[in-house]
Design brief:
single chain, mainly alpha, Arp2/3 complex 21 kDa subunit ARPC3, two-stranded antiparallel sheet, 8 helices
């Protein structure tokens, strides 16, 4: 079948209901898949790439959202959110946290805002076009969520560990002077870049792993 990502898609006009989309099958087989994808996501979360020339040192690029997207595309959005949650819990339990869990909370919230819309749009009609549109909408949703969560929750909480002035000054860009410019020139471009890289990676690997996830 042309332009398909899911090995068992058909050309039928059947559109899943919201109830079926949000339903999660927690069979033993699917729980094993969720656990394995969570473990892979945790490992990928450790492989962070600093982009010190453009962003503050605590904004490092990783592709740990890819396994959650793979799980969400194959098993539904609830499974994807569970993978995001378990990944961050593993990070706290195994690696520890220097931010009181704030960094992991931010990662979970922002990642969920990528995964939920992307997987819902894809699941409504499983084809390549919907996958692309889902990932675009998910990236934009993630970026908007990051703006609001950083402005109202994450940065204020971070400021309890590091003065807000130091957080803002950590940006290598001289144009960043306050929280609003930090959001505009650090949060937005970073999340757009991350969303694009995660989306492209997902598109590249999903077709290959889809048969395994659907066994």
């Amino acid at each position: 079948m042309n332009n398909t990502m899911d090995h068992n898609m058909t050309h039928s006009n059947y559109v899943p209901t919201w109830k079926s989309i949000l339903k999660v099958d927690l069979s033993t087989r699917n729980l094993v898949k969720i656990a394995m994808l969570s473990a892979v996501a945790f490992v990928l979360m450790l492989l962070q790439i600093p982009l010190a020339a453009l962003f503050p040192p605590f904004l490092q690029l990783d592709v740990s959202d890819v396994p959650a997207l793979l799980g969400a595309f194959a098993l539904g959005p609830v499974a994807g959110v569970l993978i995001e949650l378990i990944k961050n819990l593993l990070h706290i339990l195994i690696r520890g946290t220097i931010t009181g869990g704030i960094g992991e909370l931010s990662n979970f919230l922002v990642g969920s805002f990528l995964i939920i819309p992307a997987s819902i749009i894809y699941t409504r009609h499983k084809n390549k076009k919907n996958a692309i549109w889902g990932l675009i909408v998910g990236t934009l949703s993630m970026t908007i969520a990051a703006c609001f969560s950083n402005y109202y929750v994450v940065l204020p909480l971070y400021s309890k560990f590091m003065p807000l002035e130091e957080i803002i000054a950590s940006s290598p860009l001289s144009i960043v002077k306050d929280m609003k410019s930090f959001i505009l020139f650090a949060t937005i471009p970073f999340n757009l870049l991350k969303g694009i890289i995660v989306s492209l990676t997902t598109m590249l690997v999903y077709k290959g792993v889809s048969p395994i996830l659907h066994k």
